[in-house]
């Protein structure tokens, strides 16, 4: 029997991975909102520089999780092997400075509310495929797994980090470019560093965790099964014993470029180019001054971005990843940006600002700031970006 997968969140990421899993022979059902009509009438279309152009139809399309629950209640034999959550990450709680939890305001679409909604769809015992329902999270940021682990203590939680530049240009139509890379790991993993997301932060720079250990051997086998499906669909799937290392590495770039581009209202390469253009003096300025100003503007912008990245690295190292994360990760992120084609990429927060959507401020920035306070690392640039983005997000939601 084909693996049964429910995809919650059919934005551009959810659509692409639905396509890949369908290619692998899985039967994917999708929860759709704004693109529900398009999905039911014409299916989804992906235009990819890597995978080509393909139109596909999910096994079933639901307008809400409640609708999917109602159908399952009417079909006692219906079981999902994987529930893939690809929504924006809005943790219902974040770490405070002492490592405890605090409620996050404005979390009506929070991870905890989604976890509660899908509870009737999660099978705690084995399915027809011989496994419990696994929760797969393809989301940004730190601490995104905690609400699901609290709700499903005995279910496999598969945490994923995706590198997939995509844009949904029209309802149900996605354009994908540059790269596709999915990093996968079980949550939590066993190590001497707590959960690795700052929920049990301490400095362990001289200690080594056993990266061959998982929270549950059965969970590791289920994770390998999901990775095999992704690979069969033609994509990459790298299994990590400690997925939090991959989360921290992605945050190095994401926590810098995403808020900066959102505030500047331009893509990464546009941001660098704008610094030079704005800094060029008028024709009345001396030639030597003009050359000096133009020459220093772009390096200054690059330095600002790089210093933000270095703050993320400092936090990760203090949280126990000194042996895995360092200056080379910053250099890689800076080189990746420099090597892009004009006009660069549109980070998720910039896309959200342009579309008037809520941003993942807590998952991307708030988590890092709180872990920094828990481990005693000063992050003035990240704190500045965090408070500015909170204000912008609040204003975009009409002050709610």
From TrEMBL:
- What are the residue boundaries of the Ketopantoate reductase C-terminal domain, all occurrences included? 297-390
The organism's superkingdom is given as Eukaryota
Domain Ketopantoate reductase N-terminal residues, every copy: 5-94, 128-188
Q: Where is this region: Disordered?
A: 186-214
List residues traversing the bilayer: none
Q: Which InterPro entries match?
A: 6-PGluconate_DH-like_C_sf, 6PGD_dom2, KPA_reductase, KPR-Related, KPR_N
Q: Gene3D superfamilies this protein is in?
A: N-(1-d-carboxylethyl)-l-norvaline Dehydrogenase, domain 2, NAD(P)-binding Rossmann-like Domain
Q: For this UniProt entry, which residues form the secretion signal?
A: none
Its protein name is: 6-phosphogluconate dehydrogenase
The scientific name of the source species is Aspergillus keveii
């Amino acid at each position: 029997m084909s693996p049964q997968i429910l995809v919650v969140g059919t934005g551009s990421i959810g659509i692409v991975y639905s396509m890949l899993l369908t290619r692998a022979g899985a039967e994917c059902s999708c929860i759709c909102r704004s693109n529900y009509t398009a999905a039911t009438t014409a299916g989804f279309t992906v235009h990819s520089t890597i995978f080509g152009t393909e139109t596909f139809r999910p096994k079933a399309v639901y307008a809400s999780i409640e609708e999917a629950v109602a159908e399952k209640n009417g079909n006692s034999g219906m079981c999902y092997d994987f529930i893939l959550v690809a929504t924006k990450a809005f943790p219902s709680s974040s770490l405070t400075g002492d490592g405890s939890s605090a409620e996050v305001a404005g979390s009506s679409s929070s991870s905890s509310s989604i976890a509660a909604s899908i509870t009737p769809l999660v099978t705690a015992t084995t399915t027809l495929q011989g496994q419990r329902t696994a929760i797969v999270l393809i989301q940004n940021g730190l601490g995104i797994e905690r609400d699901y682990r609290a709700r499903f203590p005995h279910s496999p939680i598969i945490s994923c980090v995706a590198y997939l530049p995509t844009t949904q240009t029209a309802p149900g139509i996605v354009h994908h470019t540059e790269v596709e890379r999915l990093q996968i790991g079980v949550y939590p993993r066993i190590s001497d560093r707590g959960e690795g997301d700052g929920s049990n932060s301490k400095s362990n720079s001289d200690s080594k965790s056993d990266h061959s250990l998982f929270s549950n051997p059965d969970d590791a086998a289920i994770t390998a099964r999901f990775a095999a499906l992704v690979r069969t669909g033609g994509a990459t799937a790298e299994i990590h014993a400690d997925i939090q290392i991959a989360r921290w590495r992605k945050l190095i770039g994401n926590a810098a470029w995403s808020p900066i581009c959102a505030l500047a209202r331009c893509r990464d390469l546009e941001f660098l180019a704008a610094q030079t253009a704005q800094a060029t003096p008028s024709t009345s300025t001396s030639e030597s001054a003009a050359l000096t100003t133009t020459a220093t503007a772009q390096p200054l912008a690059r330095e600002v971005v790089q210093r933000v990245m270095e703050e993320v690295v400092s936090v990760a190292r203090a949280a126990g990843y000194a042996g895995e994360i360092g200056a080379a990760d910053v250099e890689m992120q800076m080189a990746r940006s420099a090597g892009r084609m004009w006009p660069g990429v549109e980070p998720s927060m910039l896309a959200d600002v342009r579309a008037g959507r809520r941003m993942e401020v807590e998952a991307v920035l708030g988590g890092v700031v709180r872990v920094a306070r828990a481990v005693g690392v000063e992050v003035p640039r990240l704190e500045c970006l965090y408070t500015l983005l909170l204000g912008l997000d609040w204003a975009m939601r009409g002050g709610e």
